[in-house]
Amino acid sequence: MGPSAIHSAEDARRLARRRLPWMVFDYIDGAAGAEVGAARNRAALAAMTLRPRVLRDVSERSLSTDLFGKQARRPFGIAPMGMCNLSTPGADLMLARLAARNLVPLGVSTVASTPMEQLIEAAEGNAWFQLYFSGDGAGTFKLVERAQAAGYETLVLTVDVPEVGRRPRELRHGFKMPFRIGPRQFVDFALHPRWSLATLFRGKPQMANFQMDGYDFDRTESRARATWDTLSRLRDTWGGKLVVKGVLDPEDARAVKAAGVDAVQVSSHGARQLDSAPSAFEALSAIRAAVGPEYPVFYDSGLRSGEDVAKALKQGADFVFFGRVMQFAMAAAGEAGLQQLWEVLSDEFSIAMAQIGVTTISELKA
């Protein structure tokens, strides 16, 4: 089936489930523990309603918004996701081209499978580098220097992974990063030949940002040594915009603001870290209240539609990021599938604006 079969994020997920090896699908789709946290995120989003208004002239609507002083064509961008090329060969570059076309940020993961330099070039500068603090931090700050040299203007420090969460679905398949193929994986791949042949032809995905002198990445290495002093050092080192991602507590959000960080990103890491964490969506309004009306607040976790975007903006977000649904669209139908899903999300959001009687993002958030 081609991109014409994608009419919603759930369509993309359903098609991706057919085409991806079980191990890869469960790595992308899975969450921590019993996945109650993921259900909690979705339940909170589903429970919020939008208020329809009638007889307002909504014939001309603008989906663009201001983001760090620049115009983004949508109030949503692309969350940083590790090893995207597992969804389909060349996925990272597909996302970069999408970001360039729409002037929205591509989150470039520390564990991306394409080098950060190549991605910011393909995104025509519309890329933010996402950073994990790891080990003693020596390699981390080398990545910061590299991002600066590559021309990144925004750095996103992810702080909600002091240890990698236990995700039983991927553990059952023996999922490892760097990517390793054993007998179980071989059988899985053999049963999904379309994905396997394309992936083998293009080469096994690698964590491209660690192919440099002085950095030997270990996914299981503890990230637990990061402290507020680490953040202060990063703020002193990094001259561009700095975002702290993975905040769910209002006190932490206030402390991030006080540390001179330019924006906070409310996120539960797609419920991939702590099954018992509160719903990121429910935390959003409390964090907005804690940091005040003017401070930039971003959001990700659990978003599945354009209506979800409208809800997040209503709850206090200035900008939001889609994650795994982007990978599902590419797994389902490549770059055409990604573009189709982007158009679906845009249409859903635009129609929601019309239904609730607003024509601009600022009107929606009022």
TrEMBL record:
Its cofactor is FMN. GO terms for molecular function: (S)-mandelate dehydrogenase activity; FMN binding. Residues 1-366 form the FMN hydroxy acid dehydrogenase domain. Glyoxylate binds at residues 27, 132, 167, 269, 272. Keywords: Flavoprotein, FMN, Oxidoreductase. FMN binds at residues 80-82, 109, 130, 158, 245, 267, 300-304, 323-324. Its EC number is 1.1.99.31. Belongs to the FMN-dependent alpha-hydroxy acid dehydrogenase family. This is (S)-mandelate dehydrogenase. It comes from Ruegeria meonggei.
